[in-house]
Amino acid sequence: MADPPNSAVIGSRPVAESLAVEPSKETSSTGGAPKESPAGFDAALELSAIYDRVRKLEIGAKESKDHWYSSQLFSSVLSGVILAAFGFFLTGRLEQAAKERELNIQSAKDMQELLVKISTGSRDEAEAAAVSLTTYGPYSIPPLIENLQYGPERALAAERGLQALALTDAGDLCSNLGTVLENRTQRYTAASHTAVIRILGAADCKGQPQIQILRAYADFIKRADASGPGLIQYQQTVRDATASNVTQAKQELTNTFRLLHVDYAF
């Protein structure tokens, strides 16, 4: 019986052994002894190295895409700039407040001198001081209204000053005058009420609040003129009020309604 193929031998060695791959050898160009090839290929190490290189490239690409303003250095610089700007703004506001306070103090001193001239000067001096006082704008309205309640010269000077304010501060003037007529606590005299009615017409106070206030005051005067109880209520509401003040108030209201083109009949 013939031997199986795997048992075939070539010479003195089996065929399988003779077919085994022997390590390759290189022959030197000079014809010397052959030299062995480098160490064998390690796939795991090569894959690990490739993965590390790819990861580094990805990290580098991501860092290159980050915005310049997201860096820590920029954040530090920006914080410093913001703090410096805030400090500059705060310092400026404090300096401005100090200057405004100094100006207010000086203005109060100047206004006080003008008010003294209104109360103690001659008629011409009082009127000149009242008109000069109007340069302080709305701040001059309350003291001028207060001077309507005193002697004829002071009251007349104050009225001139309030009429002059109609050219520069009509809104504030009309609002303050309306408040005077609305008062029902004997805070103001009948003479000052009459002057206020006159100024409202001269200052052309056509605002809806002022017209309503004038109508309500006219109704008040109409009741005072019609009966004894109405006059008593008027005297309890307006300081130093008399029957003659009722008549005078009616005349001034009629004239003011005419100037403001308001229909009203007593």
Give a quick rundown of the structure.
By secondary structure, this protein is mainly α.
Please, could you describe this protein's structure?
The protein is mostly helical and 266 residues long. It has a domain at 100-259: Serine Threonine Protein Phosphatase 5, Tetratricopeptide repeat (Alpha Horseshoe). The protein is 68% helix and 3% strand. It contains eleven helices and four strands; from the N terminus they run E-E-H-E-E-H-H-H-H-H-H-H-H-H-H. It has helices at residues 15-19, 43-65, 72-120, 123-133, 141-146, 152-165, 170-182, 190-202, 208-226, 228-237, 243-259; strands spanning 9-10, 13-14, 25-26, 35-36. The strands form two sheets. A two-stranded antiparallel ribbon has the order 1-2. A two-stranded antiparallel sheet has the order 3-4. A hairpin with a 2-residue loop joins strand 1 (9-10) and strand 2 (13-14). Helix 9 (208-226) crosses helix 10 (228-237). The chain is elongated, with a radius of gyration of 52 Å. Mean pLDDT is 79; it is low at 1-38.
